[in-house]
Amino acid sequence: MRTASAVTSPSICSCQYVRDTALGNSTLISPSSLRCSAAPARRVATSPSFGVLSTYPPTRCGLATFSAALADGLSVHGADISVVRVADGSPAADPRIIGELVSDSPASVAAAAQLLNRSDVAIVQHEYGIYGGPDGDDVVDVLAGLTVPSIVVAHTVLKDPTPHQRSVLEAVAALADQMVVMSEAASQRLRLGFDVDPRKVVTISHGAFVPPDLASPARQDRPTLLTWGLLGPGKGIERVIDAMVALHELPSRPHYVVAGRTHPKVLAAEGESYREARAEQARRRGVAGSVSFDAGYRDRASLTRLAQASAVVVLPYDSTDQVTSGVLVDAIATGRPVVATAFPHAVELLASGAGAVVAHDDPDALAATLHTLLTKPDIAEAMAAEAIRLAPTMAWPVVANAYLDVSRSLLAQRGALV
């Protein structure tokens, strides 16, 4: 097994993958004139090393943030991390990044697999929209080229996939040694709705950054309702703006903050039309003074402070299908009450009382629930207390340890960990 200070196994060449940015192609080269410089690996009882395939910072998307946080969590436990980043044209200087996967390039696919094979375990993030090929089916070829145990993290498990989407995910599951989902709703949907080996499916919570101080915020003259995340159609912001009309006459008139940049793909296709339409909606409904849009970039610390200062976090998403929401987990981890539409992950995580779910097509219920939390502090405080109780179980070091347990089990099955 290769550790942070050891070299690769004798069966794998220490070739480096490089991307020719001028020509847009990719090759495998060796630092020793194409000679294999691998040496025998040391076998030690320590944390395995991980090769991670995913989008990765500076790419700004939930998957990149997830992968970086998981890498940090694994590093806390002493694991060596190497990243093969899904290329998006932006430069990346992180020393963990050892190569890039270029879409629709068979040579790049083969190179990515070889780089991942240099670690003890490969962790592959799966989302249909990030890899090349129809429905991202390039990732199937990457998995087929792996010789080390693989863990595939399924971020989306569709309720009604197209035939090709179904076949892609089933092919991924057939090649993976372990499939990780982040909710029981996703686990049930994958095991019952797809042709997968149910023994391969394990549920590990989405991780979160848990602030050291989860005290409730000081009372404010104007309590803040907060929605954050990359903005675009489907976020359901219009639901909360309509609800603000019913809350406008409260003695402590709330302020609704929508924090986050427009999703890059939405920005490229539609510009800021969704944000502008929501601002116009607020003006038309007479609540423009109570609704603001914060499109500035916030680092983790700044976003945590913003969330902790809010009275309620609102997740009014349009989707009735969403089985994983990182924002939902982060909201609970900040110790704030959550109000969400009844998408599956929210129904599951808020069931113990850390928040409330409302039907997607019931605007009166949304307004009434927000009214209750703003006017009955004992109810809001009870929800916050349950969120604070749940938060430590979602901390990234805890989640990373679960991945370590799975990895050690896989390696033990292959007789590779001693």
TrEMBL record:
<feature type="domain" description="Glycosyl transferase family 1">
    <location>
        <begin position="218"/>
        <end position="387"/>
    </location>
</feature>
<dbReference type="InterPro" id="IPR001296">
    <property type="entry name" value="Glyco_trans_1"/>
</dbReference>
<protein>
    <submittedName>
        <fullName>Glycosyltransferase</fullName>
    </submittedName>
</protein>
<dbReference type="Pfam" id="PF00534">
    <property type="entry name" value="Glycos_transf_1"/>
</dbReference>
<keyword id="KW-0808">Transferase</keyword>
